[in-house]
Amino acid sequence: MSKLRLLKTGHGDLCLAEWDVAQPGTVGEAERAFAEHFTPGRLAFRLDGPGRTKPIREFDATAPEILLVPAIQGG
């Protein structure tokens, strides 16, 4: 099962959805969760294993894992 996770600053992460491309209903639910939580100020990354991370801007059902993170702020 693939996972969509949201990194919560100072609080670990939250699993928003799990999907299996062989089960279309689970993909739709994960895609809706991605659209709901990929808000301005957040970044999304496809995680393919150690050292293999790619930024994405839309849901990718083929990803083994997607991580949503708050944008880095400095100042």
Give a structural overview:
With 75 residues, this protein is α+β, with helices and mostly antiparallel strands. The protein has one domain: Ubiquitin-like (UB roll), CATH 3.10.20. The chain has 1 helix and 5 strands, in the order ββαβββ. It has one helix at 24-37; strands at 2-7, 13-19, 42-47, 53-56, 65-70. A 5-stranded mixed sheet has the order 2-1-5-3-4, with helices on one face. A hairpin with a 5-residue loop joins strand 3 (42-47) and strand 4 (53-56). The N and C termini lie far apart (39 Å). The mean pLDDT is 93.
Describe the SSE topology:
Elements: E1 2-7, E2 13-19, H1 24-37, E3 42-47, E4 53-56, E5 65-70
Parallel strand pairs: 1-5
Antiparallel strand pairs: 1-2, 3-4, 3-5
Protein name: ThiS family protein
C-alpha Rg (nearest Å) = 12 Å
Average of per-residue pLDDT values: 93
Strand order, largest beta sheet: 2-1-5-3-4
Tell me the name of the CATH class: Alpha Beta
Q: What descriptive keywords fit this protein?
A:
Ubiquitin-like (UB roll), 1 helix, alpha+beta, 75 residues, globular, 5-stranded mixed sheet
In short, what is this structure?
This protein has one domain: Ubiquitin-like (UB roll), CATH 3.10.20. Strands 2-1-5-3-4 form a five-stranded mixed sheet, covered by helices on one side. The protein is 19% helix and 39% strand.
